[in-house]
């Protein structure tokens, strides 16, 4: 378990070395140009073999017994190369079930209607929903039940959709689909809430990685692109934009760390801190790749450039975090009560 800044930095460097050997933004762009969804089975197999989706699972359950900060480091690394991976959701689902992931598991953020040990309801545009092998859902009636659903089983209809980053998303409808119970009552509600919070912290960390890579690329471009006999990075408007974007990234990283610690230690302000990180991601981090495109200028709008890959991934991740007004309300209520 990584407990110190030095250990987390070492984990980050190791993960970067692995990911840069296994993937690149060029390959993400090539998937966008292909006939199918932007997903690579070999890359996901590599990540699974490394045990990254099981980092939050206790050692007694066959996992790494790691912290949420460790998962955040890993998802930030995958974001830095815009890798199309359902790592955040699968890791949160594995934590929720206290067992290693055996495929692509997703945590549904909203509850469903329960009838016995079956569930009914629908989800719109679930990221990686078409490729999922398990759904972890909260079903409520007289008693709440947290359980797993087989997306290939009876009572399930999946309709593929194409989001901006072309991941294998799907509309998912459940009509009395069989539910395998994991927990019941108050424990079910709390465990589902905590799993969703962990998923969102990891997704924000991934967006930090996307934004940081886009801003770094724009900064390097500003050093070599010359206009009026000067590098464009010497112009105040460009310089201030890049610095402001770097500041937004560092704030986002700090919010991720604070929210991760709050979740790991079950602090009462964990929910508010997760919403604060999510709100910042939707409000500020998502805008960084957009600003980077403006630094690149017209070349960024060509298919051959990497800028739009980061932009697509950032927009999709921000949408997966949930409604901006919802997070703003949680944060303002928390601040007003302090």
List keywords for this structure.
Butyryl-CoA Dehydrogenase, subunit A, domain 2; 338 residues; single chain; alpha+beta; 54% helix; globular; Butyryl-CoA Dehydrogenase, subunit A, domain 3; 16% strand; eight-stranded mixed beta sheet; two-stranded antiparallel ribbon; 11 helices; Butyryl-Coa Dehydrogenase, subunit A, domain 1
Written account of the structure:
This protein is globular. It is 54% helix and 16% strand. The mean pLDDT is 95. It folds into 3 domains: 5-97, Orthogonal Bundle (Butyryl-Coa Dehydrogenase, subunit A, domain 1), CATH 1.10.540; 105-185, Butyryl-CoA Dehydrogenase, subunit A, domain 2; 188-337, Butyryl-CoA Dehydrogenase, subunit A, domain 3 (Up-down Bundle). It has helices at 5-22, 25-32, 41-49, 68-80, 87-97, 185-224, 236-264, 270-285, 287-296, 307-320, 324-337; strands spanning 105-107, 112-115, 118-126, 134-140, 145-149, 156-161, 169-178, 180-184, 226-227, 230-231. It starts with a helix and ends with a helix. Helix 5 (87-97) runs antiparallel to helix 6 (185-224) and helix 7 (236-264) runs antiparallel to helix 9 (287-296). It is of the alpha+beta class.
Quick take:
The protein is an alpha+beta fold and 338 residues long. The protein has helices at residues 5-22, 25-32, 41-49, 68-80, 87-97, 185-224, 236-264, 270-285, 287-296, 307-320, 324-337; strands spanning 105-107, 112-115, 118-126, 134-140, 145-149, 156-161, 169-178, 180-184, 226-227, 230-231.
Order of helical and strand elements:
HHHHHEEEEEEEEHEEHHHHH
Cα gyration radius (Å): 20 Å
Q: What helical percentage do the residues reach?
A: 40-55%
Strands, count = 10
CATH topology of the largest domain: Butyryl-CoA Dehydrogenase, subunit A, domain 3
Most strands sheet: 8 strands, mixed
The figure for the number of domains is: 3
Low-confidence stretches: none
Provide the CATH top-level class of the largest domain.
Mainly Alpha
Estimate the mean pLDDT confidence.
95
- How does the overall form come out from the CA principal axes? globular
Q: Could you say what the CATH architecture of the largest domain is?
A: Up-down Bundle
Q: Cα distance, first to last residue?
A: 33 Å
Strand content: 15-25%
Q: Give the number of helices.
A: 11
Q: Output the structural class.
A: alpha+beta
